[in-house]
Amino acid sequence: MTNTTPIEEKFSDFYEKWVCQLEEYLRFLVQDYSHESDYENLVAKLTTHHKNYYRFKWAAAHEDVCAFFTPVWLTPLENAYLWVTGWKPSVVFRFLTALEDLSEEQVKKIEGLKVKIKMEEQKVEREMERQQVSMADRRTVEIVTCGGADVAAVLSGLERVMKMGDCVRLKTLKGLLDLMSPKQSVELLAAQAMFHVQLRKWGKKLMQRTSLRRKSLLSVRRFSVSGTLAKEEGDGFNSVSDDNSSLNPKTPQQLKNQLEEYLRFLVQDYSHESDYENLVAKLTTHHKNYYRFKWAAAHEDVCAFFTPVWLTPLENAYLWVTGWKPSVVFRFLTALEDLSEEQVKKIEGLKVKIKMEEQKVEREMERQQVSMADRRTVEIVTCGGADVAAVLSGLERVMKMGDCVRLKTLKGLLDLMSPKQSVELLAAQAMFHVQLRKWGKKL
Q: Do you know which InterPro entries this protein is assigned to (predicted)?
């Protein structure tokens, strides 16, 4: 393994062995047993297996937490489905449809647990958002001169969020297993194990069939020309087409510096409203170019956008479906002045709609994940071009769904604001992306 840290190499070796052991357990999980004690023993072995994973993970992450937000030991497909360094807790509830003989009382308690886990997930996401927004509050000079204590604070924050996510995962499994009989517990653990094993097999198969490693290099070279430029800041405020013929070619360095150049103008005061209008127009064009280029490049290699090598590990840690999370933008509104009561009311309405749109994207991602576990191993081994195309097309669709929510968010907010307020919002968002990148490079 090249260009990896000692921690990445160590954990890669551990993880490969851990998954092999999980696949070995899976053969026992799908069998029928005549004694309840056999099911109890299997549950005990699987829970110990999971505990060992988190024990090893937490020890390794304490030395290099960023490695767990862009894990090299996972395939691009597995990385595409990550939520805060692991599987999303609410996905597990989708596996319960395969369980038999759930009583009415169990169903009621499971629904209650599901609500609690969703609240726990949102708590983790809010903490991640809080850390992101705090980045934008630091001045550039603070980042350039940051010392060991500053770096340690950022890494400690990421480690804390990672552990929060892991704790929700553990709570989910423990909560469900506590509500089930030994046989039902084995059925649930079998469904979850099948999901992870099948997803990994699919990921490896896709890498073989589509030569993702080779193609990723091409996509990175092409997209870095535009990706570094817009820093996921981009938003096309009209419909975005896959046609990138209208792009004005620029050198990577020019594109890299362009957002910071705009930022210098965004933080100035102007005497004429037309100056603010012109700035908004320039930024929206800048955003449109980003998405136009992104969609064209992703059509060639969509997996590259779920683990983008053109971003720093810190930037990757804060990704949501290949970009910035739409609801984060509402956190920047605290910096805006003179918002009327009517504007605040409409913004709150938009915020609710955007949250619903985010959840729709997340449900579609969950649906695709669960469908992976439903395929038999023989289907994966023998999958052809049509199967590969279907998986990649599904990821591309989810990516575009996420991008469209980003588009709706910025367009919706800018439509509610004056030109001056729009510039203030765009300045806050640009500062966030510029500062996050500077921090990422400093780390």
A: Seed_Dev/Stress_Resp_Reg, TGA_domain
